[in-house]
Amino acid sequence: MPSWIEVIIRSTLLILGLFFITKLLGKKQLSKLSFFEYILGITVGDIAGTLSMDIELHVINGVVSILIWTLFPIIISIISLKSKKFRDIVEGKATTFIQDGKILEENLKKEKYSTDELLEQLRKKDVFNVSDVEFAILETNGELSVLLKKEMQVVKWGDLFPDGSSDNVPLTVIMDGAYLNETIYSAGYSIDWIRNKLKLKSANVEDVFLGQVDSSGNLYIDYYDDDNLR
């Protein structure tokens, strides 16, 4: 077999294998990487790249190595879910950098965090005065969480109207030009009610790509024809 064909076969199989491993490890790998998971991704990728290009390496040895590197985080994740102490050892603990507007210098030194780095992370949170911060905590994934003092927080709707009704998630009632009967009736609406809403907009259900009803009973329509602005 020509070497270039073997490279193609190896690369294709490894890509499929890495895709399967990514799905197996879960979505957490995409949104929140711990230090260990970061090292894991680099190592597995390096093994796969080397294995796909170097035809002198035995495929079985490389696959075994990848499986071992993949098996460890799965085992660690299972144990971490059941043991808080083990989770603290593997993932570490959150560290408080600012408390009641005061910087905790010892915690900064412990995490090898400089004052400039702390101020930079605060600016990324649109915070420019340390005295405005109630708490600033370095999470285990390296993200800085900031809680402003009460008087510095943005006023929310609930602060002004504590008894106000909350908005519900829009209900999808039409999709791909067809009524979603089960969804419509389970929400307490009817097909006739939706039809009347469509008549008011001079629309036919066949022309509607997506239709949603908000918490106020208003019907939003997205047409197949984007030029149809009714």
Automatic annotation (TrEMBL):
It is found in: Cell membrane. Belongs to the UPF0702 family. Pfam families: DUF421. This is DUF421 domain-containing protein. It comes from Metabacillus bambusae. Its main location: membrane. Keywords: Cell membrane, Membrane, Transmembrane, Transmembrane helix. It comes from the Bacteria. The keyword Membrane applies. InterPro entries: DUF421 (IPR007353), UPF0702_alpha/beta_dom_sf (IPR023090). Residues 82-214 form the YetF C-terminal domain. The chain crosses the membrane at residues 7-26, 33-53, 59-81. The keyword Membrane applies. It is a multi-pass membrane protein.
